[in-house]
Amino acid sequence: MANADCIVIEGSNMAECHPVGFQWVAEAKARGAKIIHVDPRFTRTSAVADKHVPIRVGSDIALLGALINHVLTNDLWFKEYVLAYTNAATIVNSDYRDAEDLGGLFSGIDPATGHYDTTTWAYADGDSGEETTGDSHGSEASARAAGDEHGSGGPPLDATDARRDATLQDPFTVFQILKRHYARYTPEMVQEICGISAEDFAYLARAITENSGRDRTTCFAYAVGWTQHGTGAQYIRTAAILQLLLGNMGRPGGGIMALRGHASIQGSTDIPTLFNLLPGYLPMPSVGTHDTFDDYLSAIFTKKQKGFWGNADAYTVSLLKAWWGDAATAENDWAYSYLPRLTGAHGTFQTLTAMLDDKVDGYFILGQNPAVGSSNGRMQRMAMSHLKWLVVRDLSLIESATWWKDGPEIATGELRTEDIETEVFFLPAASHVEKAGTFTQTQRLLQWRHRAVAPPGDCQSELEFFHELGQRLRARLAGSTDERDRPLLDLTWDYPLDEHGEVNPEAVLAEINGRHLSGPDAGRPLSAYTEMRADGSTDGGCWIYTGVYADGINHAANRKPGREQSPAALEWGWAWPANRRVLYNRASADPDGKPWSERKRYIWWDEEKGTWTGDDVPDFPPGLAPGTRPDPEVGGPEALAGDDPFIMQADGKGWLFAPKGMLDGPLPTHYEPQESPVANALYPQQRDPARVIFDRPDNLSAPSADERGAGVYPFVFTTYRLTEHHTAGGMSRWLPYLAELQPEMFCEVSPELAAERGLENGQWATIVSPRAAIEAKVLVTERMTPLRIGGRAVHQIGLPYHWGTGGTGAVVEGDGANDLLGITLDANTQIQDSKAATCDIRPGRRPRGPALLALVEEYRDRAGVNAETGSERLSPGLPVDGADAEESRAGRDEADGADADATKEN
């Protein structure tokens, strides 16, 4: 980021939420970079930016899509980069129909489920003109468990014979599809949907285009302000399309920085803690789809595809060998049968509903506080009352450990302590300064933390806890002849202990790194994932981390100061994969291997030495020369051409259009959030049809747009975090010096909204949604800007989410903002939509006891809310068959022509 000429921070309050990383933004600004903050609130990030652009939460795709349209219509795209390095020239199946043809839907929609058969999204075949490969998610299990499982290499795709038109004139080239798709995403539409003025849009468009190209680069940065939306994955896809068009991917000061902060957030998806992934973003197998090892391998990759994901079999076999050692053999398919199988989506919120339905006996809570920190807090607490047992590991007696005696539902009478049968166990945990190991944050950087002090009393690290739990379970099962116990008994659970009798965390890192198991190098740690083999001769617990323990050295602990090394600081920590600091950095040079400019030189081809060299570890086969054309019959890394920089993609190109892998559309499309005060101005389809919904009486949604009762919840609210508090408050509300800095739950409102609703600064207000009502102190501030949307003012309310009630020993308490939220999930990632919902606000404190429930119910009655509200997949009257599609497209073309004539007249 320090090398950027322009930085757009959108979906993040980086200065407050990532203050350490923000130093690089400050450094870029000191070098002359332009900093723009796009956010519904004016924050400390806004205060040090060159420009703050207020935006309505949930409308970012409309803004980014309009920037794409601006780049295309004004011929500002980086032509040489786009033609060589993206799939712009690739031709898509002629049966494909776009959202422009189908009123906001894509071809392949199942109207009943909202699932897509993505066959028509595929590339056209070179011989027949038909698709190269299809992808149908016909079952609930595959459709709802498939999202976000292609993080490392993209979905399997045989694109070796895909048709291309280098002139970009074929109407079914990705480039032409892209132009049509975003043609109506105009500055006027941005003002209508986002509330952003034409002047602010022009400023933003000018800043990013003037700071992109051969000699300059623009960087985007986002955090959960983008990911925690019902279409969050598509937010990031839209930014990726824009950055590819501008030539900002794989280059210093470019790219899209996913800001990942506390508690190894990036590491938790790498290793991972997600239900649908294995370490290194290998998919978790599903019942009925991946019953055999061959089924699994053929589903996750093909040997015909380009790039290093073509070696996914080696990564998988090495993982199985790391876990089951000698018990994993070629004869038993490397113990593949030991892996669990998915029967559908088993994420946090699916587990929650299963708990409420009495299908879950026990639950572990580690480093989380769902009673406060998760959407629909009442559902979270009620679900825990259905458990037989609950284990909470934390530093303090957080609300998730004490809801049974002093939670909000005790006060309302919905729960009675004496009736709750859940047995709750609280186990004290070690803090981050009381344990050693790696943390992986923004920039994919593994950094080693040394233990500063021993944990007090019975406090344990996660490593110690799970190691001891594993030992006890294995002891219980010792001698068992039951086949279902073999996976646990055969685990390689032989970690060496240190002088304190605890597991040596470096031994775990070494296991993750991997080693040679046979041959002359037997026992030697692997130096790179390219050394992994599918024949069982190597192991490794996470292929993308291979190299962090090369030569038996803990490279995560590297600590050479930046002033003593190269600009990329390769000797500070270790970045996956292969210690590369910029992914896909082959794109920092032109197709001939020369830097796009001397100012932005980073990686280049050394003709004399016959290798790639530069400031970073080349993200490319080191000896693969520019101009090389591979044998069309080969696959994997050997199939890469000398100008295929995106080495993990199945065709070696950056995807402007996603023929596979996304469950809700090959191109990002603006939909309104689950709850919105306005109608979708771009399409008849109001909401993302593929979103995951839970239409239950305990998860009601407010009416939207012009639906009856929408005016009962007229305002938008969004949640955020503060510098002074940490997530759900477990590490901050128990500390007097942090609690003193932010002692009370509050809500930010504009002076205009305060005047409209009679709210007074410093006094109480009650905020009501269909799920709950909470109280907060009023902060009247011009940092909240009313926006003109759809011809009327739309007010937004800001709510920090750190407070909760009921935790034992907390210095400060307050109502939890997340109680207001319903649960709707992104189809691809299963992440909740927690940044945009609707509510009402009124002066005064909320009622107590049963009267609180009565207030919430009174609002529901007035709005006519029931379990079906907002649950429809398709908006009424949408065309979904071919005839209707052609008629719709003809009507759209006629309207576009009229709009064009009107524009000329103006």
Automatic annotation (TrEMBL):
This is Formate dehydrogenase subunit alpha. It comes from Tersicoccus solisilvae. It is found in: Cell envelope. Its cofactor is [4Fe-4S] cluster. Belongs to the prokaryotic molybdopterin-containing oxidoreductase family. Transmembrane segments: none annotated. Residues 886-906 have a biased composition (Basic and acidic residues). Keywords: 4Fe-4S, Iron, Iron-sulfur, Metal-binding, Oxidoreductase. Residues 2-389 form the Molybdopterin oxidoreductase domain. Gene3D superfamilies: 2.40.40.20, 3.40.50.740, Dimethylsulfoxide Reductase, domain 2. Residues 715-834 form the Molybdopterin dinucleotide-binding domain. SUPFAM superfamilies: ADC-like, Formate dehydrogenase/DMSO reductase, domains 1-3. Residues 121-162, 613-642, 864-906 are annotated as: Disordered.
